[in-house]
Amino acid sequence: MAEPNPTPARTPTAAVEDYLERIAALIQTKGYARVVDIAAELKISQASVTTMVQRLDADGLVKYEKYRGLILTNAGEEVAARIALRHELLTGFLRHFGLPEDVIFRDVEGMEHHIGEETLTVFTKITRYLDEHPEVVAKLRAEE
Ligand code: FE2
What is the Cα–Cα distance from 27 to 121, expressed in whole angstroms? Predict the structure, then answer.
């Protein structure tokens, strides 16, 4: 008997989430997101980006508009906003522990796709507690 698929078809994959996160960030900083910019950001070929953009378009997450370039649909915006919020929450948590920014970024980029809502809520509560209790942060950081 086949294993049940743990990921429903409509749940975006980590790759889809990464694309939408990058596209939203590009639109926010540059005002537009071109295939060439996405390829440079994700360090992959323009041909791969084009293939993925076509898939995102077919899934109703982005639209290609002549003159404006790529834009996110409402559904695409939703996925991008969700992942951006996760990125922010997890970064806020890890910054309490004095880790180098590149380590935080690398690990958050991995975790943000896989952490469940319940666990994210726990991290959020701990982060809020640590924000309000710098003495606890100092104690934790002093421990080897
Ligand atoms: Fe991220």
Answer: 29
List phi, psi (to 5°) of 81: -65, -40
Spacing, Cα 79 to ligand 1 middle (Å): 12
| Cα 84 to averaged position of ligand 1 atoms, centre (Å) | 6
| Cβ pair 61, 75 in contact under 8 A | yes
Distance of CA 12 from the midpoint of ligand 1 (Å): 14
Q: Which domains does the chain have, with CATH numbers?
A: 14-77 (1.10.10.10), 84-142 (1.10.60.10)
Tell how far the Cα of 69 is from the centroid of ligand 1, in angstroms: 22
Query: Taking the model in full, what pTM does it have?
Result: 0.82
Digit-by-digit pLDDT tens for the chain (144 residues) are 555 544 444 678 999 999 999 999 999 999 889 999 999 988 899 999 999 999 999 999 999 877 778 999 999 999 999 999 999 999 999 999 989 999 999 999 999 999 999 999 999 999 999 999 999 999 999 986
Residue type, 135: E
Query: What is the distance in A from the centroid of ligand 1 to the CA of 111?
Result: 9
The length of the chain in residues reads 144
* 25 Cα to the center of ligand 1, angstroms: 10
